[in-house]
Amino acid sequence: MIYQEDNLLIKEVFDQSNHSFVIDSISRISKGKNNRTYLVQNGKNKFIAKFYFSSNADTRNRLSNEFNFLQYAKEINIHCVPKPVIKSDRYNLGIYEFINARPFNSVDLGKNDVIAAADFFSSLNPLDRSDQYQNLEFASEAFLDMQIFANNIDLRIATLVNVLKEKHSSNEINFFAKDLQEIWIKVKLSLSKNKNLIQHNQSLCVSPSDFGFHNALIQKDKIFFIDFEYAGIDDCAKVICDFFIQPEIKVPSKYLELFVSRAFLSFEKKDLLLERAIKL
User: What is the pTM of this model?
Assistant: First the structure.
């Protein structure tokens, strides 16, 4: 039923836009628990139609985050991301260029791919710092205040511990939760000792957020980056941390200095950025 309703909404949005044409087919390509994604086709023209998840518990505007980020990328001539086509706030629906490429895999990862990712980030943050980025919101869970950041993690760990208690989890899992609490206490102490360095040398940037090769496609030798629902303005050091600690396609730490040197070409004090990232 939802599929049929979505089809009608997609057709309506195309009909009311400047991209009006007869749609040959609409097929569901994602059954994720959050968004509903479709491939829309007319002859050789293909688009991605994405209905965004929303709930009272999550007030983030994922549609605006992603569409505005991709509009910004388009305006500054970045070509390794999908082009935004139509935005429907009424239906919480975004239409984007379809990129005919396969998902990036761990075996694909090499030095040149890290350079491509760094160059993509660098192109998002040109030296002239165009006013075009002013339309972007802060990234999801942007690192703007260390105490808020610490409180957020406190809450997550407390929630985990309470859930484990309610489910009467095994001893092994409870030991893990206890170890996690102890490790986090030590990390907070380290953050406190380095508070001046971390808090008072902040540098903001345009961030893809959730940045890594788990959100990448590969087409022959070219890499495309996707999924910018959490994108926006964020702390540079957090971008570095996110890129190297995401677990799905892990980037070896041997590329850390290479990434920072290329990604932050337009930023001063790159050594300080790297030091802050390591402390975080």
Answer: 0.83
